[in-house]
Amino acid sequence: MSCTNKKHILEIEDLSVSFLQYENNRSSRQIRLPVISRLSVSVHEGEIVAIVGSSGSGKSLLAHAVLDILPYNADISGSIYFQGELLTHKKIAALRGKEIALVPQSTTYLDPLMPVARQVRGNKTPENKKRQKTLFRRYNLGEDVDKKYPFECSGGMTRRILLTSALMGNPKLIIADEPTPGLDLPLAKKSMEDFRAFADEGNGVLLITHDIELSLAVADRIAVFYAGTTVEEAPVSDFSSEETLRHPYTKALWRALPQNGFHPLPGVQPYVKNMPQGCPFSPRCPHQTQACQNQIPMRRVGCGTVRCTLYPPK
């Protein structure tokens, strides 16, 4: 079996994020809420890696952690490498918006007091203005949009503007956090084609999405998140059959797809205050054993990795 030997653009190893909060409105006691635990994922040159999982699984927080834009009460541990170099606060600040670009989930990232075209092009050089107009035409943003303010743009228009902003520079990595909601199907497909073309030039895309079918159509690898951690990372080809997948949660996601019978998974994802010991999926897992209550490392199986006692470390 041949796995990729391409260079890493992004490597995230054992990332954990917690937030310091007051226990409740009546208490002065502060507690730590762990929202991401020992999360690992990587992006190679020429790859689109899709992050899938239900709401609250830690997908968007991962993007904010990579870009070092978490709120002040966050505590972060683990290692993040960009092109083989360990990222520090200073290095991330220098790369953010340049070599690492974000397509944010929220449409409120735009400055409400500045016309959108000026925000996208940044410096008013002839090259930037030409590039901005080319990108606007590609995404059906007419010249009348140039002087509009964000509040004058629809949600779909705003998402297209945010996408053009990420593509304006010369990034090596794009982190796209739910980039297609609000876009009609042709424009959503167009944005995915542009991400694919961007990756095929030797760059990387970290695509955060709840749309598994979309990720299967465009990505090279899928990283499955559950309750703040990675449970499996696998090539897209492994999603052709339930038998080639590894983790019970990934198999359940596969069975829930319409083309695979649309079988729902009983139960709910645990809340951070009620996280079980060991594997967070164990209360819903048909293969649960006593060993699931222990810390479970990621293990390589074939061209993928999995965090499950069904694959004990060798």
Rg value: 20 Å
Q: Between the first and last Cα atoms, what is the distance in angstroms?
A: 19 Å
Strand order of the largest sheet: 6-7-8-3-9-10-12-11
Low-confidence stretches: none
Q: What is the helical fraction, as a range of percent?
A: 25-40%
CATH topology of the domain at 8-21 and 31-99 and 172-184 and 199-306: Rossmann fold
Report the mean per-residue pLDDT as an integer: 90
CATH superfamily of the domain at 8-21 and 31-99 and 172-184 and 199-306: P-loop containing nucleotide triphosphate hydrolases
* Biggest sheet features: 8 strands, mixed
Name the structural class. alpha/beta
Top-tier CATH class of the domain at 8-21 and 31-99 and 172-184 and 199-306? Alpha Beta
Order of helices and strands: EEEHEEHEHHHEHEHEEHEE
> Quick one: how many beta strands?
12
Number of distinct helices = 8
Entry summary:
This protein is α/β, with parallel strands linked by helices and 314 residues long.
Structure description:
- With 314 residues, the protein is α/β, with parallel strands linked by helices.
- It has a domain at 8-21 and 31-99 and 172-184 and 199-306: P-loop containing nucleotide triphosphate hydrolases (Rossmann fold, 3-Layer(aba) Sandwich), CATH 3.40.50.300.
- The chain has 8 helices and 12 strands.
- It has an 8-stranded mixed β-sheet, sandwiched between helices.
- α4 packs across α5 (155-168).
